[in-house]
Amino acid sequence: MRSLVNKLWRGAVELVYPPVCVLCLDRGDDGRDLCAGCRDDLPRNFIACPRCAEPMTTRGQLCGHCQQRPPDFDRVHAPFVYDFPVAQMIAALKFNGRHGLAPLLGELLADELEGRVATPDVILPVPLHPKRLRERGYNQALELARPLARRRQTSLDTRALRRDHATEALSHLDRKQRRRVIRGAFQLDPAFNARHVALVDDVVTTGSTVGEITRLLRRAGVERVDVWALARTPEARAVKKSGMDARK
Ligand SMILES: [Zn+2]
Ligand SMILES: [Zn+2]
């Protein structure tokens, strides 16, 4: 009954405000602000490292970093490459106050993960430092995580993990430096208890942030840590990038 009421309500809203594609301004499809054509053209991360989702040229092959030093997390799922127009949508969400893009991007991520990932006991969005949260007004990772938790019918924990240290731009740092800078930036509630966790973030660049959080989770006895991110930066560009996403 409730879903019928929701459907009718959505139908009524769409009559008055039809969805508009945020990319081409055509009419959106499936009640979303994205049309089918633009959606099909998004840069998908089809061939990627099976551990860290780094875009690769050979299917099923671990990237050099994962071969040399296996990451602490079990697996990153990042369905898109951090490239046009996904990169611009994420930047608009984070830096231009386009809070309204979050439900669309979160639903997109949920669609892509459908049938491909196991449902975790709990979803943890990567937290922002409180100062950054005050400036931005919202945590984009949490906003992306909301539709995921709803569709997976699992809990969303926004309290267990805290970011205590503000890290300045990571964009000019290499992988090793990032790992050093991020060390000790997070705190986990000592009472945290789960076996399987999914960490949610907007972009994974080198994986140093989610790697650091994973180490905390492992110490708390978490057995499986999956990372769900909208996009993965190709490693070669991780250091050269403009720093849009790395400002967090
Ligand atoms: Zn479009
Ligand atoms: Zn890898």
What would you say about this model in short?
With 248 residues, the protein is an alpha/beta fold. The protein contains ten helices and eight strands.
How does this structure look, described?
The longest helix has 15 residues, at 2-16. Helix 8 (175-182) crosses helix 9 (208-219). It contains ten helices and eight strands. The termini are far apart. The protein is globular and about 55 Å long. The chain folds into two domains: 1-41, no CATH class; 45-238, Rossmann fold, CATH 3.40.50. The chain is of the alpha/beta class and 248 residues long. Residues 239-246 have low confidence and may be disordered. Residues 49, 51-52, 54, 62-63, 65-66 line the site of one zinc ion.
Keywords for this structure?
248 residues, alpha/beta, 2 domains, six-stranded parallel β-sheet, disordered C terminus
Ligands, ions, cofactors: zinc ion
Instruction: Fill in the CATH topology of the largest domain.
Output: Rossmann fold
Give the helices and strands as they follow along the chain. HHHEEHHEHHEEHEEHEH
CATH hierarchy, class of the largest domain = Alpha Beta
Query: Strand-residue fraction?
Result: 5-15%
**Percentage of residues assigned to helices:** 25-40%
What number is the mean pLDDT?
Answer: 90
Q: What does the radius of gyration come to?
A: 18 Å
Total strands: the figure is 8
Uncertain stretches: 239-246
| Count of all domains | 2
| Strand-pairing-aware structural class | alpha/beta
Form type: globular
Number of helices: 10
Largest sheet: 6 strands, parallel
| Cα-to-Cα separation, first versus last residue | 41 Å
Q: In the CATH classification, which architecture of the largest domain applies? A: 3-Layer(aba) Sandwich
